[in-house]
Write a structure and sequence with these properties.
about 50% helix; mainly alpha
Length: about 180
């Protein structure tokens, strides 16, 4: 006996389903007597279309040492902090003149000229701090993550903050009246 759907041989006479294709038999099958030999041709099985889930590529991990953006980020951050220190030295001399009596240190330079120099130095330091942060962003985008870029980024933020504070304080300090014993009214 053979399955009428796929032509597979049926093992037991009271079988209700084909073991190969799973089709149900309508009635009990009667043994089929073949008059002539007919070869069974199988249809080529076409694979069912496979539904695939789109695979997204993960972010590639960049391997390597610090690149040029990381090095520039760190260098500009150090320059920004150096400009803060130099500007602080120029700006602090007038504060020392206010705090120290003139008879202890009479030749201490000071005045609005040094504060103007300090103001310009802090502006340049602020620009270098901003350039450091820009290079930090480029390093994060184009280079592998490394310690030099992270330290440069943090120092760049410190350079921006430290140079921005005197830019606010110097104009306030210039407008304050200063006691100068050498100035007579």
């Amino acid at each position: 006996m053979f399955c009428p759907n796929c032509g597979e041989k049926i093992e037991s006479p009271n079988q209700n389903f084909c073991t190969s294709c799973g089709s149900e038999f309508q009635s009990t099958l009667t043994p089929e007597v073949s008059k002539a030999y007919q070869p069974i041709t199988e249809k080529p099985q076409v694979p069912s279309p496979v539904r695939s889930v789109p695979v997204y590529e993960s972010k590639s991990i960049k391997v390597g040492g610090p690149g040029p953006h990381s090095k520039r980020c760190f260098a500009f951050a150090l320059i920004a902090i150096a400009f803060f220190i130099v500007g602080l030295i120029f700006g602090f001399t007038i504060v020392l003149r206010i705090l120290m009596p003139v008879y202890l240190y009479p030749y201490l330079p000071g005045g609005p000229v040094l504060w103007s120099v300090a103001f310009v130095l802090h502006i340049v330091g602020l620009v270098f701090g901003i350039i450091s942060r820009v290079n930090s962003g480029n390093a994060g985008r184009y280079e592998p993550s490394n310690a030099l870029e992270k330290v440069g980024s943090v120092f760049g933020v410190f350079g921006i903050i430290l140079n921005a504070l005197p830019l606010v304080l110097i104009p306030i300090m210039i407008t304050m009246p200063i006691y100068d014993p050498y100035t007579y009214f």
